[in-house]
Input
Amino acid sequence: MPIWDRLWGRRRTSSGSTAKERLQMVLVTDRTDLSPEKIEKMRDEITSVISKYFTVNPDEVKINVERRQRDSWLVADIPLLRSVNKTSESLDPDDA
Amino acid sequence: MGAKVVTVTSGKGGVGKTTVTANLSAALVSLEKRVACIDADIGLRNLDLILGVENRIKYHLVDVVEGRCKLQDAIVKHKQFPNLSIIPAAQDRDKSAISPTQMVAIVNDLSPHYDYIIIDSPAGIERGFRNAVAPAQEVLIVTNPEVSAVRDADRVIGLLEAANPRPPARLIINRVKAEMIKRGDMLTPDDVFDMLSIPLIGIIPEDEAVLVAGNRGMPDLGSRAGHAFKTIARRLMGEEIPLKDAPTPGLFRRLTRLFGGRT
Output
């Protein structure tokens, strides 16, 4: 049991870093007045707008509110999927 | 020349506002400044007790505002620190007994006679807080390395940023336990600074001497915490003293670069 405890203790994340992570989340919510659910909803809406113009994988769309100094920033990280481009397709040697 | 007016506030209660006010005031007096400290926590007065003048109060802040006495009559002089004056809060009234305008008027009357006026704010963000902050030329925000205290400090900083005029604010991280930080079980001063992003004026270690000094009603500037208070006093006076246990310039530069290069 003590050995198990020690192993457990060693594997556990320190409470200091847990405190920091939790605080960073709650400060974003406090400062922007946006709950995590609302941010999630906004993410879905932005994804659907982007999808009208680009091919994206909704699972890869990252939209977060980040704190930089005393300001809040909306940061989006949206990888575009390589779609089959019609022009390049017609230039393909196999088509010639 | 008028006094520099500094308000000590925190949002959360119990983080050490009154202790900071008492010790910082005593530290400034030890550096040969004339200091008046005002207890703005009407209804829950305690600055008098921490400074050991609780038996010598005749009048209080609300008596002055309501014209029952002159301002001079409410001032209690500290016995050991003759250059330290205390203006106690009323104990039988509430925060609404005074307005921010009246607070400014009292501070203006005191100002010519002192070098520093230190105002001990009540906890919270309501009327009492607004009274305490109204006359401030600078605000010191006290927090502990603890989730609730940091969150409340962030809220207070947000309110001050929205205020007009906006007083400059600096951070005091109080009750830092080196042992817990070593174990990884406490937010470090770096963490707190990183999240609150306002200039740091000092870090106070957890020190039993602070409680002992409170028991006696006599600030102990010779203790470890007392030394930290003296350092804060000197920084407040404009001395440049590098922060030893605080965020390093290296980290700060890294942060500012990461965050768009602004300083």
